[in-house]
Every structure is written in C-alpha cells, then in structure tokens.
Amino acid sequence: MTHKGKTCLIFLVAILSSLSAAKDFRVSVISDMHVDMKYDPQVSADLYCTRGEKRDQVPAPYGRHGCDSPYVLFASAVMKMKEAEPSPDLILVPGDFVTHSLIYKSGAINKRADKEFNETRYQEIMDTVENVAQSIAREFPGSPIVFTQGNGDYLYNYQVPDQTRKARHYSALYYYWIANIPSNKKAATAENFFSMREHGGYVQEIRKDLVVISFNSNYYTVHNRVENDPGIPKSLFRWLESQLLLAQSKHQKVILLYHIPHGTYTAPVSRPSFWVEEYKAEMYRLLQRYNDTVSMSFTGHLHHFNIQSADQARLQAEFNYNSLVVMRAVSPIRVNNPGFSVFTYTSHGDERLMHPAYYDEYTFLLSHTVGTTEDPQRFWVHLYNSRQDLGLEDLSPAGIGRFIASLVQDPKRLVRYTMYKIGEPFSEDKAKWVAQVCGRLFPTDIGRCVLGLFTRFLPRYGVEEIDDGVR
User: Fold this and answer.
1) Which CATH number covers residue 121?
2) I need a labelling partner for 294 at 20 to 30 A (CA). Which of 230, 356, 457, 460 fits?
3) Nearest CA to 100 among 146, 152, 136?
C-alpha cells in the first residue's frame, strides 16, 4: 500500500472511531426549589414550617411535606444531580427559586402592589436567587446553565415588575445567572443584556447546532396585571419568533425554557389554562410553525411531573407537534417527593439533537428523613427510566402522543405514571389496590382519583393563604 493510501486509511479509521464513540448529549433539569432560608425543622406544615409558635413536632431537618425546601435539601439535590451526571452538557433551571412565604400573595396584588414595595423583603428574595445560582454553578463549573424566572421570583406573586422597576430587577438576574457564571460567558453579550432588561428573556448557544431560548412566561399568565408593562406581551412574541426564525435559518435546533406551561392537555389530569387565551393561541401557532426547529419545551410550576401533548382535542400521535415536559419540584409543598431529571439525546446522525431518547428521574424519600440526622444523600434513589419503566419509546411528539393515548387505555400504566409524577417509588400491591378503588369509584376519571389518593386527597397545608390556591 502506498504512503498516500495508508494516510487515507488512517484518516478513515479515525473518523469511524469518532463516530462510534460519539458522546450522548445529557441535559440535567432542576426546578421549583422554593428555598426557604428560615425553615424551622420543628414547626409543623400547617404553620408552613417557618412561622407561628413551635409545635411539639418530630424534627424534619431535610424538609417536610407541605412546606418549602430548607437550603440543606436543595444543596443535597444539587449534590445528587452531580453524582447522577458529573458533567452534563447543559443544565436547565425553569424557575421558582424562592419560598412562597416571602412573596406577597396574588389576591392582594390589585390592592397593595403600588404602595407596599418592601425593599428589605425584596432584597431577601434576590439574595436567595443569587444563592441558588451560585450553588449550582459551584458544583458544575464546566456546564452551561440556562435559567428562566418563575412566578414566585419577584416580590408579587405572578406579577412582572412594572416599568419603573424592571431594569433593576432583570439586570440583577442577568448578572446572577449569566455574567457571574464563568460557564455562561458565551451568553454574556450586549444583545442578551438588553433583551433581559426589556423582558427577562435571552438566548444561549450551547453548540453550533443547538440553542436554548429562555423567555418570561409571567407576561402571559391570567394572573399578571396587564398594566404592569402593557407593551411587552406582544413584543416578546415578536422577539421569540425572530429567534426561532434565526435558528431555523442556521439549521439549529431549539430548546424552549419557560416556567408556566401554556395550557396544553395534561395526562392524566386535565387542568385549566394558566395563560390568557389569546397568548396561548399565539404560542400554539409558533409551535406549529417551527415544529421542525423546536426540539423540546421545558417548564415547571406544577410541582408534579407531567408529559404533555400540544393537541387539546385529540390524543392521536399524528396530531401532536410539540414535545413538552413539566418538571417535578424540589420543594415538597405539593405533597410530592423532591426530585430532578436527566434527559439523554442519543446519536442518530443529523437527527441527533431533535428529541431526547429517554430520561431518568431521581427522587428523595422525604418521609424517611423525619426524625433522623443521617446523611441526606442516602435517601436519594433512582426512581425510573422512561423507556425501561414506562414504555415511553422516546420524547418525540409522536412518541409522547402514543404514550398519552396508552394511559387512557391502560389503567395499570396510568397508576404507575401517577406514582412517578409525585416521586413515589412503584409498588405492585399499592398500584393494584389504587387501580381497583379508582376504577370502581371514578371509572370515567381514574387519573384524578389516582393522583388524589397518592397525595392523600391533595392536602394543602395552608397554601391557599400564601398564593390563593392558584394552580
């Protein structure tokens, strides 16, 4: 063989080796921490674990169902996330960093928002946000971290800052989550600085074929006062479409990151929309138009894990055009076990980054920690793999459509999925009993019955007095 031939052969072998050893792309997602820096392990959940006289309670140092997260629980989740995937290619944080107890409830907004801006309280909120950002960044110095803000990351629940305060608020978030995190230096651009100051959204390129667009869904919620910043909702949509069009022209895939889901069909329980109908319709239009560009939509807010279909009326897979997931919360206030997820894109040539192939969920067995001072890391477990344990073939729109349809047809799978939604390890005996009970009592609404039983009929522990029971 000639020298030239040997060189070509070596080059070909190198290419084949690199392709065969292609690294899967992993995305770690952690949401709705609601960190409470004043959490008291001896205060009961009906007093929100932070206020009122102490009760004779067994100490719950790592959190209590019905309360927000002590910092130690959030830190433990970050440590487990690092153990599960030490160097993720991307970390997504869909918002709600701050305890409910710091935020003025939405029922009081129309009466008090203009005259009761509490600077001390606001600074306490922002200190918590910065603490959360730095805690994640310290453990993952080499991973880009993209955030979006939740409805509870400002002084007034579900409200965006008005025109007199938004530059200060959004600028602080820009520095906390972008400029001050070394792994996000590519996103520290003048364009992102100005878009953040204007509406709280920005774009981060993760690799040449993938960008994340983070936008502020608080502008679209039915609870936000339009007069806070009346011109932004429509201009934000124009900005979002311009970014989608740019990505499409560059043959890039897009991950959308926003906090409040836009009111899609949710399995197994159908919920009312959190978005104004006009804005929800516009979001559907964008998702349909750019369905070949948008890889996934990641949201939070509901605290229970959800896989959603973009089609509200029909469950057939061919009518779904968007893959959307709602992340389970770290905060156990909704009677869920704390958790996080790791999504995996596998190598499939040009389609490698179109949709995740599967995800892994991790859960914290919170009730086991009451009355103990053992290392909290021992209470974290791998909960399930979406492909192996749920039979979800992949997270493409078609795959999600077929999965949701299967839940309607298979009560046993529905029960398993509902247990996983709140972070409950699967139990054949428990699942069989719940399926039988719900099948007899509520044959036409098994999903809601199952969710109610597993969360002990959804006890609220005084949440209504904090956020008016919205959700």
Assistant:
1) 3.60.21.10
2) 230
3) 152
Range of the domain at 272: 24-467
Residue 4, domain member (yes or no): no
Cα separation values, 176 from 83, 158, 172, 322, Å: 24, 21, 6, 31
| Cβ neighbours of residue 295 closer than 8 Å, sequence gap 6 or more | 210, 253, 254, 255, 323, 353, 354, 355
Q: In which residue are the tokens 């974290």 written?
A: 380
Within a domain: 147: yes
Identify which of 66, 216, 106, 148 has the alpha carbon closest to the alpha carbon of residue 470. Answer: 106
104-125 pLDDT, tens digit each? 875 444 444 444 789 999 999 9
| Residue whose tokens read 């006009």 | 278
Total domain count, the chain: 1
The angle formed by the CA atoms of residues 386, 390 and 393, to the nearest 5 degrees, is: 65
Distance of CA 147 to the CA centre of its chain: 10
Measure the CA–CA gap between 91 and 84, rounded to whole angstroms: 13
Residue with tokens 């927000």: 68
| Contact (CB, 8 A) for 93 and 30 | yes
Render pLDDT for 273-315 as a digit per residue (tens, 0 to 9): 789 989 998 998 999 899 999 999 999 999 999 888 765 444 4
Does the residue 19 lie in any domain? no
**SS3 sequence of 316-369:** CHHHCCCEEEEEEECCCCCCCCCEEEEEEECCCHHHCCCCCCEEEEEEECHHHH
Distance of alpha carbon 286 from alpha carbon 43, whole angstroms: 47
DSSP secondary structure letter of residue 222: T
